[in-house]
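Quick one: co-fold with protoporphyrin IX containing FE.
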Amino acid sequence: PYPAYRRLRETEPVHESPFGFWVMSGYEDIAALLRAGMSVDDHKLASGPVRDQREQLDAATRGGVLGLSMLERDPPDHTRLRSLVGKVFTPRKVAALEPEITALVDARLDEIAEAGRVDLMAALAFPLPFAVISKLLGIPEAGHERVRDLSGLLVRTLEPVADQELLDAVAKAGIEMAEIIREIIAWKRAHPAEDLLSALIAAEQDGDRLSDDELIAQVTLLYVAGHETTMNLIANGVTALLRNPGQLALLRERPELAANAVEEFLRYDSPVQQTRRITLEPYTVAGRTIPARTFVIAALAAANRDPRFWGDDAEDLRIDRELARNHISFGAGAHHCLGPALARLEGRVAIERLVRRFPRLGFAGEVEMNGRMNLRGPQHLPVSV
Ligand code: HEM
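Sure, here it is.
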C-alpha cells in the first residue's frame, strides 16, 4: 500500500473517496484530527456504506453487542468504560509479565531450533501474544482455538468496505464470539482468580455500571486487540529486518537498540494501518471542508512515512532513528491505545531473543500477506534458522 499512500499524501492529503468517506494521509493533519475529539460512533453517520454496514451488523448481532466496546463509543459511555478497564489493566500488571513472556518466547524458540524451518506466524507471532493475553485475562487457551479464526474475521469490521459475503461471515463470527465470551464470563464468575477478567467482574459488581453486553464487548476488545495487533508487530518487524540485512546486522551488533527498533517497526509498517473518526460538524483542513456526520479514515501508516514530518529518509528502515517513538501507530487523543506497554514488551522480548538466538535466521520462502487492509501483516512467514 505504501506507493498508494505516497501518491495520496503528495496529490491529495485530504481525499474524498467515491465510496462516500474521506481519507487523510498527512502526519500533522491526522494528529490534529485524532485529538479534535470527534465521534467514533458509526450510528452518527448521515448515510453511506459504512452506516449501512453498521446497521446490518447491528441487526445480525442482537443490537450489535460487540459495537458496545469503548473503541466505538463516545462520551460519557467511552469515559466510563475506559476508566473502568484502565483501573484494572495497569502498567504494573504489564511490567510484571516480563519473566513469563521471556519464558514463553524461549520455549517457542526451542521448538523453532528443533524444527529448523517454520512458519513464524504459527511458531511465534500468533501463539505468543495469544498466550499472553489469555493469561492476563485468565482465559484458558485450551478450548479456545476457535477464537483465532473468529478474531481474524471480527477485525474486518475495522475496514470501510466489505463485500456482502464477508459481511455475513463477520456477523456470524460476531454472534459466535459473543456467545463464547458470555460463557467464559459465566465460568469466571464461578471461578474468580488473580486476573484481569476477575478484576473487571469485581469492578462491575462494585457498582461501576457495566451492562452484561458491555462487559462482553470490552473483554472481546481486549482479547482480540491483545493478539491480532501484536502478532503483526512481531511479524512485520521480522520481515522488515530480513529485507534490510544492514539493519539486522546493526541490531546484532547493538542489541541495546531493540526497544528503539520496535518503535521503528511500528512506524515503518504499522500493524494497524488506519483508524477512523466521524465529524459532528463541518471540519476544514488543508483547504478542504469535510461535511458533518462523515466518515474519515486516518491512514496512520501513511502518516508514519510522511517526509514533511520524518524527513527524506521516511521510507527507509532505520532502527537507530531518533524520535522513532513519535509514530502514530497507537492512535492519539481520547481513544489512544490502551495496550502500548504490553505490545512493546512482547515485541522487544520476542525480536531481541529471536535475533540473538539464531545468527542464520533467513527467509525460507515467499511471505504471504493476510489480505487485510487494516490489521495488515503476513498470513505465512516461512523462515529457516
Ligand atoms: C485502540 C493500535 C495493541 C487495546 C487502539 C487504536 C489503535 C491501536 C490505532 C485506536 C486509536 C485511535 O483511534 O485513536 C494498536 C497497535 C498494537 C495494539 C498497533 C500493537 C502493536 C493493543 C493491545 C491491547 C490493546 C496489546 C490490549 C491488550 C486497545 C484498546 C483500544 C485500542 C482497549 C481502545 C481504546 C479506546 O477506544 O479508548 N489500538 N494496539 N491494543 N487498543 Fe490497541
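If it helps, The first strand starts at residue 14 and ends at 16.
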